[in-house]
Specification:
alpha+beta; seven-stranded antiparallel beta sheet; 12 strands; globular
Length: 199
């Protein structure tokens, strides 16, 4: 009598893992990842910077245009030294600008500033000059960048490190100034694809 185990067909043994989702060897699709991360509530900030002068050697040369973008991927990294991180889409105007301009600013938006978040998040938008036209702001002393009036907090930063990460660039900045210009209202948040307020 033989001790050889009986032969079984491949169909009787299911694969140990489900097949990977199309496009990603890790097994998650873009839609699944986006849906999962949309359940993570995040704060909303306005990132701003000023383009360098057209001719840095000429003090009378016109300054560059102000540039702004809405960001929800912003966080504190370190207390000592004070570092923050913002994630920028690779090749975006802000990513390109911060590759040559090390100084930038962040305005933490309040729940009453949803219109600002929407304005600077538009695709195919008009020029940044028009977006800033009726926006009350002050200019940061350290960065020269616009700081949104009525923001819950403002930070001026200098880039310490740029880290490529997939289709984004992680920009780590050292905080040069921090201020609390407004104590009114709560924060503007982003959850499940919409701007929201607490409560």
């Amino acid at each position: 009598m033989s001790n050889t185990p009986p032969l079984t067909s491949p169909a009787s043994h299911p694969p140990p893992f489900p097949p990977p989702a199309p496009g990603h060897a890790e097994g998650v699709s873009n839609e699944e990842f986006r849906a999962a991360m949309s359940r993570l509530a995040s704060g909303v900030v306005l990132v701003t910077a000023q383009e360098p002068p057209l001719d840095p050697d000429d003090p009378l040369a016109p300054g560059g245009e102000d540039v702004g973008m809405t960001a929800t991927a912003f966080l504190s990294v370190s207390l000592d030294p004070p570092l923050v991180l913002v994630s920028l889409r690779e090749g975006s105007r802000m990513d390109d600008l911060l590759d040559e301009q090390p100084l930038w600013a962040v305005s933490v938006l309040s729940e009453s500033q949803r219109h600002i978040a929407g304005r600077f998040a538009m695709k195919g938008r008009v020029s940044d000059r028009l977006l800033f036209a009726d926006l009350p702001y002050t200019r940061g002393e350290a960065s020269g960048a616009p700081l949104a009036g009525g923001a819950l907090a403002t930070l001026e930063c200098r880039t310490e490190q740029r880290v490529p990460a997939g289709d984004h660039t992680l920009v780590i900045g050292r905080v040069l100034t921090a201020a609390l210009p407004s104590a009114d209202g709560g924060p503007l948040t982003y959850f499940r694809g919409r701007y929201r307020q607490l409560g």
